[in-house]
Specification:
Layout lengths: L1 E7 L4 E9 L9 E8 L8 H18 L6 E5 L11 H15 L5 E4 L1 H7 L11 H15 L8 H16 L8 H8 L9
Parallel strand pairs: 1-4, 4-5
Antiparallel strand pairs: 1-2, 2-3
């Protein structure tokens, strides 16, 4: 059985998705699990509270993740200025997470723009509000995978990344030409079978 993890790491609300496919259990299709972690936001952000938040979210994400993975797909940083607040802390969480995931199997970073294209949404015009952008991606993921529980945009991002990793390893998905093109832009690892 092939197991792929998708993660949208955040200090406030992380999204995770696992897809398992192949083997005897695949007679019913791939199985999906999703998780949304809620971090604690302190009244005053200090070095100590930031580090505690990173460790708490890391612990919660790793509790969801099995000990061996065929592939982990982690959302990379957004370089837009509107995401500048706590960028260093988010990067810290991302790399702490990667340091743990890499011991469980190969890890790939996917940029937010590529992740968005993998959902089939395509290019969203500059100036589009974040809330509309998130809603569009969430709706596209729900339409592509209607049997998967997608409670919010954080989980939608994680599902999109797990689906892309699964596609790289042979999962059959209803990808269109734009999604296949976006998929080709990711440096997928060569995985020996």
């Amino acid at each position: 059985m092939t197991v792929v993890l998708g993660v949208d790491p955040s200090l406030t609300t992380s999204g995770c998705a696992l897809v398992k496919f192949g083997g005897a259990a695949d007679a019913w299709g791939p199985s999906w699990e999703t998780w949304r972690g809620l971090g604690v936001k302190p009244d005053v952000e200090t070095t100590a509270t930031s580090f505690r938040r990173m460790r708490l979210m890391l612990t919660e994400i790793l509790a969801f993740v099995p000990p061996r993975l065929d592939l982990s797909v982690v959302e990379g940083p957004s370089m837009a200025s509107r995401h500048a607040g706590l960028a260093d802390e988010r990067a810290g969480l991302r790399w702490l997470l990667i340091s743990q995931l890499i011991a469980r199997g190969p890890v790939v970073l996917v940029s937010p723009n590529t992740r968005q294209a993998l959902t089939g949404v395509g290019v969203i015009p500059r100036g589009t509000k974040d809330s509309k952008r998130k809603r569009m991606v969430t709706e596209a993921v729900r339409a592509m995978l209607p049997d998967v529980r997608v409670p919010d945009h954080n989980v939608a991002d994680a599902v999109a990344m797990a689906a892309a990793g699964g596609y790289a390893l042979g999962l059959d998905l209803p990808y269109g030409a734009k999604q296949i093109s976006a998929h080709a832009n990711v440096a997928w690892p060569v995985i020996e079978r």
